[in-house]
Amino acid sequence: MGTAELQGYASFFMSLFLVVMLYGYILHLYRSEKKGEKDYEKLGRIAIDDEIDSTPVNSSDPKSKENKE
Questions:
Q1: Which of 1, 18, 52, 68 is deepest in the core (most CB within 10 A)?
Q2: DSSP string of 4-34?
Q3: Rounded distance, CA 9 to CA 12, Å?
Q4: Which residues contact 42 (CB under 8 A, 6 or more apart)?
Q5: 1-43, pLDDT tens digit by residue?
Q6: What was the pLDDT predicted at 24?
Q7: What are the angstrom distances between the C-alpha of 27 and each of 6, 45, 57?
Q8: d(CA 59, CA 31)
Q9: Taken in order 14, 15, 17, 21, is the CA torsion positive or negative?
Q10: What is the secondary structure of 49-64 as a DSSP string?
């Protein structure tokens, strides 16, 4: 088994691993949005609606975090 053959196998398995990780992450995003944990549609609007007087996407009120815990 030569070095080039070993590099070929390593490249193939690394690509396969990265594809599996990508699809796992996409599935995670899809499931968390369906459960209502996150609204990625709303978070995606941050780049479009980026004005100083825009309403915040998430509340950063420390008291609301205390009530959740």
A1: 18
A2: HHHHHHHHHHHHHHHHHHHHHHHHHHHHHHH
A3: 5
A4: 57
A5: 789 999 999 999 999 999 999 999 999 988 988 888 877 777 7
A6: 97
A7: 32, 21, 23
A8: 23
A9: positive
A10: S--TTSPPSS---HHH
Write down how long the chain is.
69
Q: How far is 12 from 7, CA to CA, in rounded Å?
A: 9
Q: What is the largest CA-CA distance in the chain?
A: 63
Q: What is the C-alpha separation between 47 and 27, in angstroms, rounded?
A: 23
Rounded to the nearest angstrom, the gap between the alpha carbon of residue 7 and the centroid of all alpha carbons in its chain is 30
Q: Name the token pair of 37.
A: 């944990």
On the question of pLDDT at 69 being above 70, the answer is no
20/14 Cα distance (integer angstroms): 10
